[in-house]
Amino acid sequence: MSFLRMRRRAAGPHVRLLLLAVLLTPAAARSEPNECRRVPVLSEGPAPTLGRIAATGRTAFLADGLARDGCPEAGEVCRERAYLVAGDVVILSSRRGPHVCATYPGARDGTDRTGWLPAQSLAEEPTDAPALASWFGTWTRAEARIRLEPATTPGTVAVRGDATWGADDPERMRRGGVHTGEIDGTATPADGAARFAMGEGASVPVETADAFACKVWLRRLGPWLLVDDNLACGGANVTFRGVYRRRP
Predict the structure, then answer these.
(1) CATH number of the domain that residue 193 is part of
(2) What is the pTM assigned to this prediction?
(3) Which residue among 83, 106, 124 closes a domain?
(4) Per-residue pLDDT tens digits for 61-103
(5) What is the C-alpha to C-alpha distance for residues 17 and 111, in angstroms, rounded to an integer?
(6) Which domain holds residue 215?
(7) Which CATH number is 70's domain given?
């Protein structure tokens, strides 16, 4: 099991926190050029890959430009307290000069950690094309659950899921301020990726779907299911975006 190490502000022993991750692939309309903190963007840009920390000692995450001007290029001033060690596996997305936007998936839902890492500290982690059976099961992250099952047509997957926004907030729960969303469709995985849009009573291709239709992108990578959507699959602030783990 991998752990994300955090340095305390004051002197004292270091602690290790379990964290789960989110992906980022920058797009002109959705992020700043040096932003590295968001959940997966699978609808555009290069497909995410896996990497492993190869450097000895501690490899610290670097702040992005939204957190500190000039980062991650500004060097030591961008260094954050959170760090990884040799052997930790990360999900890699966008690149900016000598830096790679990386997500460290910890052991628990909702404990994401994404940030810039020095490319020289990383080694590529080979991955095989996932078998169709590896898609099936119940996948979860904080406030979301997706069930993938064999669909009627061979080679396809039935996708059903629900998500909330605010369900972890007792005050919102008390006053009924929780928003919900659902997805229901069929997708055809190819090269580790699948996508669909929700039409009237059936799934339709993302490319031909109405602009306001719920659109979903999925990718199997390592032990995780990565999900992205167009923010049209539920109430305000509800999204299925994130990194999911399979549950028994």
Answers:
(1) 2.40.128
(2) 0.82
(3) 124
(4) 999 999 999 999 888 999 999 999 999 999 999 888 999 999 9
(5) 9
(6) 132-247
(7) 2.30.30.40
